[in-house]
Amino acid sequence: MKRWWLIPVILVSFFHSVRGQEKSIAFKHLTSEDGLSDNQVTCMLRDRQGFMWIGTKDGLNRYDGRDFYVFRHRTGDSTSLCSNNITCLAYDNDSILWIGTSVSGFCSYDFRTQKFKTYHKDNTPLGSNSINVIRFDSVRNCLWLGLNNGGLQLFHLKTKSIATPDTKSSLDIEMLGAVRSTYDIVFKNSTPFIASLTESLKKLANLSFKKRTPGSPLEPALTINAALAASDGNIWCGAWDNALHQFNDDAKLVQSYIFDGSQKLNYSADEIISLAEDADHILWCGTKNSGLHFFDLKSKTFLTRVHLSEAIASRVYCIYRDNFNRIWVGTGQGLYVHDPLQNQFEVTLLPSPEEKISCKVFDGVKTASGAEYIVAACGLYYRYKGEKQYHFKTFDYRGERLQLTSIHRSRDGNIYIGTNKTIFILDTASIELKVIRSNDKLKNVNFYSLYSSRFNCITDVRVGERNLICGLPYGHTAMIADPERRNLFWLSQGRGDTVIIENLFRKMFVDSSNRMWICGASQGITQFILPPEFHPDSFPVSDTAFHKIFLYEREWKNNKGTKTSTVNDVYDIAENSDGSFWLTSEVSGLIRFYPENDTMPFSFVQGSFQSLQGLAKQDEENLWIITSKGLLNYIIPKGVYKLFDSKQGVPQGFSGYFFNDSDSILTAGFEGGFISFNPRQIKRDEEKPQVQVTRLWVMDVASDSLLLNKLVLRYDHNFLKFYLSSNCFTNNDQVTYTYQLTGIDDGWRNNETNPFITYTNLPPGKYQLRFKAMNSDGVESEVHSIPIVIVPPFYETIYFYVLIAATIMAGAYAFYRYRIRQILKIQEVRNKIARDLHDDIGSTIGSINLYSQVANLKLNEKTSEEVKSILDKIETSSREIIDKTGDVVWAANPANDSLKNLLLRIESYSASVLGAAGIQFRIICDEKLSESFLEMDERKNLFLICKEAIHNIIKYAQATEVLISFTKTGGHLKLLITDNGIGFQHRENAYNGNGLKNMKARVEGLKGTLNIHSEQNNGTSIEIVV
Q1: What is the C-alpha to C-alpha distance for residues 520 and 474, in angstroms, rounded to an integer?
Q2: What class has domain 692-790?
Q3: Which of 105, 381, 422, 533 is least surrounded, with the fewest CB atoms within 10 Å of its CB?
Q4: The CA-based dihedral angle spanning residues 75, 79, 83, 89, taken in that order and rounded to the nearest 10 degrees
Q5: Is 235 helix (H, G, I), strand (E, B) or coil?
Q6: DSSP characters for 444-497?
Q7: pLDDT per residue over 60-76, tens digit each?
Q8: What share of the chain is helix, strand, coil (3-state, %, to 5)?
Q9: 237 forms bridges with which residues in the sheet?
């Protein structure tokens, strides 16, 4: 009977002609959907501030690596762009941008004023408004203008004028004007070479152009579209034919190279219309109809094996190489950008089998002889040293197609391949898979027939001097094969061990101390410890038993007080020289593992990347990590990540582990291929960010396009948002921004990759907005700052406080003066009361005293009639003193400070006096007016005036009726006293009587007016206005 392990594995072989590695050029494609004003890109350049200026057929674009800011012509605005159809750009030593257009001449743009100035035929002696090319001549400080049907003209930058035959110039102006349409101008050692219609290439010599004998219409390079002074010392041109033309220093045609493969010069086919040279001395040739072609200046041949990440089939209007060797390609389908720093990974695409199955590449090895073996889910790819092609094989086992999942080159030189069924040995001579031999009775154990699983990892396990092969089938127990003695073992949890053994294996790693570390999806990181008594030589050769080995296991937890935490998911592991390890986890990110620390063995690295897979250690400062987003470089000293994704040439869907057999080259697979790179040769981004504030929003209203100077705003315009442009074009989305607003922020604030800075409700004051940017490789920009002033409202300024202080002081002084006046007024009232008491009451009391003495004498003389008369006078005088005293007390009482109380007093007096005299009287006053306030002097004097008038009416008027009325006239109080008496003959200003004099004096004391009107037998009226 034939032994079972000798039954050959059925092989199904497919040989594919897979080309060797091609140079791949990856592009970033930008269109109008990304903010570009138009998809037809006609010209571009980079200015000293770092901005890329991109001209299109519908607007001028300023690009900062993230966003486009579009300038367009505005009708009626002479400071706007002269036309939207841009044909060419130039940049002078004064940082002025010059823009040529197809129909409106050319214009300049000064970023300091943010205004355009236009030059056209209506304001300048320009030969044509259609500008084909503008070139800045730093030696002559002028612009060379190539016009369509207008020849060639010079524009002097100092005078901002076109050179004419009347202009003093060292150049042959008339010769320039004789040139027909000019399509390009190129300088070599400050000498201009001119490409124009049917004039081929002309060189400026001895201040004039050499005259050229007209050539045949079929002459090569008769009309040149584009010219380039290349690094090889020649001038290369594209013309109205299907060739690239080489000219020497004397503008003589040296050689023509046909690019379309026709081997024949053709004038009606495709043409080269744009040229640029890259850092590898490759000419990029843009054509009318067929996109890009590449010409090697060293071999003088067109390259045929260049793979573009995105085909360019439209017209290529322009190609521009910037100061960091990026190539910008302007086409009819948008802008394409090739960045050498984003094309550092070699990508190999492997052919997929005809069956529609997964072809995920898992692992690969390379032998000392240079043979390569790559395992994928669909089969095995291999090639030998010196071969350009990969061969491909698939394998069947026990009637089923195998899925290859792991590969390992052992210390014994054999190559082991793990599959979804078992582990095989690869026969590298015949490319056959052979099962690992053991006893016939073991042919059906799960080592040879896994179900719903796969061997994720294969590694060497050294026991003493013996080398064993360990395989980790996912969801099963770890298995060990001894190929030398043909025995099998499986590892089990130790007796009485409380640690749960891992079975969701991802990887086994044997460190420099021969310790076995298991990375798993359920227990995280564990250590497998074989029992010390275990030795493979202690078992019989080809034993019939599938031996069970009891393991010792160790696990780790972070212990912080009463709290413990574990890492339950570990994807990969890498060893450090200090005894620690780096771990990756799809849950916990990057972890530093210290197995000798029993308290806090895990130190978690903070960052935005928390789902990590395969891990490779470049050196003590760099880790490389596979993630679903791409490839990560973790820079250990700085503690920062750098991401390489599809924009840098890393394929999407990238996952898994790095190849185990990698040396200086790191390789990792993806669906249908793999990438490889030398981490030590990855170029760093040395471009220093040139950060600017390019947009400003005040109260959510856009108010600026480039903020350079001091910003002054009102207090109610204090909601600000700034947009920072880093002007980095490599990994712009990984540029980080930090900023500080002095007066608000105590220190720098990290805005991460967000270019927007927002401050709300800023209080009035003076601030400095400081900001800087750092690229993905840690290169920082200079610190820039913009002064910001929030002007406070007037009521918060020092002027307002001075005004308030002055007002308070003035108010205090006014109050002081008022109090003094009140005191003086009160004193005056007291003096008046004293005078009144002294004059009126004192004299009356004196009369009473005199009458009393006379009465006493008369009593002694016993003359009763005279005594009676004297007593009557005493009675009258006593009543008079009572009345006067009452008048003084009533006037001084503040409770009577109203017109209503004055009316009551007048009514009371009139009733007692006029009533006794038999005279009817009326008092009239509006109810609202009666509530008016009256000063003491006003009440007193008005009452005494009324009293004096009533006294005169009774004494002289012979009246029967009296009317007293109070009214309001023009803001003044008007008192009118009229009677129907006999009147008297009154003369103007005749106040001879004491009564009238007193009345006039009292009115004048009130600063009022007194009018008396009287006619004989028509009564009298007295009018007082106060």
Answers
A1: 9
A2: mainly beta
A3: 533
A4: -170
A5: strand
A6: TSTTT--SS--EEEEEEEEETTEEEEEEEETTS--EEEETTTTEEEEEEEPTT-
A7: 999 999 999 999 999 99
A8: 20, 40, 45
A9: 227, 245
What pTM does this model have? 0.71
> Of 835, 840, 939, nearest to 882 (Cα)?
840
Nearest to 241 by CA among 279, 273, 197, 212: 273
Residue range 681-740, pLDDT digits in tens: 898 889 999 999 999 999 989 877 777 788 999 999 999 999 999 999 998 988 999 999
| Centroid of chain to Cα 36 | 19
Give the whole-angstrom CA distance, residue 517 versus residue 515: 6
| C-alpha–C-alpha distance, residues 628 and 671, integer Å | 13
* pLDDT tens readout for residues 516-571: 999 999 999 999 999 999 999 999 999 999 999 988 888 899 888 778 888 999 99
Residues whose CB is less than 8 angstroms from the CB of residue 661 and which lie 6 or more positions away in sequence, other chains included: 363, 364, 365, 366, 407, 409
926, two tokens: 């509006």
CB 411, CB 469: distance < 8 Å: no
CA dist list (Å): 300 to 126, 233, 235, 303, 572: 41, 14, 14, 10, 49
What H or E segment, with its residue span, contains residue 806?
A: helix 798-836
Tokens of 743: 């007066």
State whether the Cα torsion 395-400-403-404 is positive or negative.
negative
Which pLDDT belongs to residue 21?
42
8 A C-beta contact, residue 546 and residue 486? no
Of 713, 737, 714, the C-alpha closest to 726 is: 737
Amino acid code (one letter) for 927: E
What span, in angstroms and rounded, lies between the C-alpha atoms of 521 and 592? 18
Here the tokens at position 782 are 């200079």
User: If we measure between CA atoms, which residue out of 643, 644, 671 comes closest to residue 655?
Assistant: 671
CA distance 353 to 250: 58
Six-digit token string for 397: 């086992």
DSSP state, residue 157: T
pLDDT of residue 115: 94
Q: For residue 4, what pLDDT is reported?
A: 38
Q: What is the per-residue pLDDT for 1002?
A: 84
Tokens of 440: 């016939």
Give the C-alpha separation, 919 to 949, whole Å: 14
Kindly state which CATH superfamily the domain 374-637 is placed in.
YVTN repeat-like/Quinoprotein amine dehydrogenase (2.130.10.10)
Pairing state between β 272-277 and 282-287 = antiparallel
Question: Which residue in the block uniquely carries the two structure tokens 């399509």?
Answer: 183
What is the distance between the alpha carbons of residues 433 and 895, in angstroms, rounded to a whole number?
A: 126
Q: Which superfamily is assigned to 897-1026 in CATH?
A: Histidine kinase-like ATPase, C-terminal domain (3.30.565.10)
H/E element holding 189?
none
HEC states along 936-973? HHHHHHHHHHHHHHHHHHHHHHCCCEEEEEEEEECCEE
